[in-house]
Amino acid sequence: MKLEKTVDRDSKEKLYVQIYSIIKEKIENGEWPSGTQIPIEDELCKTYDVSKVTVREAISELVREGYLKRQQGKGTFVTYSIRNSGLAMKTRLTEDMFGEGVGVQKELLVKGVREPSEDIKTYLKAEDDVYYLLCKGVVEDEPAYIEELYVPLIIFPGIEGEEVCPTSLYDLIQEKAIRKIFKVVQTIEVTRIKGDAADILKVKEGAPALLLHRLFIGADGGSIAYVRLIGSSRRYKIQTEFEKIN
User: Fold this and answer.
1) Closest Cα to residue 44, out of 28, 26, 71?
2) pTM metric for this prediction
3) Any idea which of 39-43, 51-55, 78-82, 139-143 has the lowest mean pLDDT?
4) Where do the DSSP E strands lie in 140-235?
5) DSSP state for residue 195 in the 8-state scheme
6) Cα(147)–Cα(94) distance, rounded to whole angstroms?
7) Domains of the chain as residue ranges with CATH
8) Distance between CA 231 and CA 236 in Å, rounded?
9) 7-11, 121-125, 133-137: lowest mean pLDDT where?
10) Residues near 4 by Cβ (< 8 Å), separated by ≥ 6?
11) Is the dihedral of CA 170, 176, 177, 182 positive or negative?
């Protein structure tokens, strides 16, 4: 007989996050398939010995991420289906941007909490304060690109204590943020380097550059984080991989 998972009250992880994880696991492993009505709040509270507020927070997040759907007067139902074989796209940009065997070092220039500018609010579709990082990529002792990262604090509490620049923001979000990434949308264009970016990259203002926008999106279509990269090197090799999901 399979034992029911329980919450760990000694854990630093919030109770609603633990309930969220338990329910999500039941959905993803097929124990609660798509179309299943999940237990009512009172039953979940009794099973896991937590309050209704805790259960509601967990369910609300799963609804936002597309795992559950509330139906007025009927209950809450699973809407997530285990995906059939298909194609998933994964991208590697800074690592593959300069070709194999070329080492890239990332340096943190600026970090801190700030109110987002109007264009960042448009990307993130939110007014909340963001955690901002400005990183510089160095190739063969020369500045090659600058990378700006914007993550709403409400989505990733505690990000201030993470080493974001030298690691993968995608992996950090998937491992530790309140919401998870469902889709990544990228746009690449040619631009002109201006202002501080020209000083950091040691190029003349107005020099041509590659501008990459990367938007991380949740299952509900809401924005999770935004990354903007401006590169000055001429040796770009942007590689996209397609991987079959079994």
Assistant:
1) 26
2) 0.62
3) 78-82
4) 142-152, 183-192, 208-217, 223-231
5) H
6) 10
7) 15-78 (1.10.10.10), 86-245 (3.40.1410.10)
8) 9
9) 7-11
10) 47
11) positive
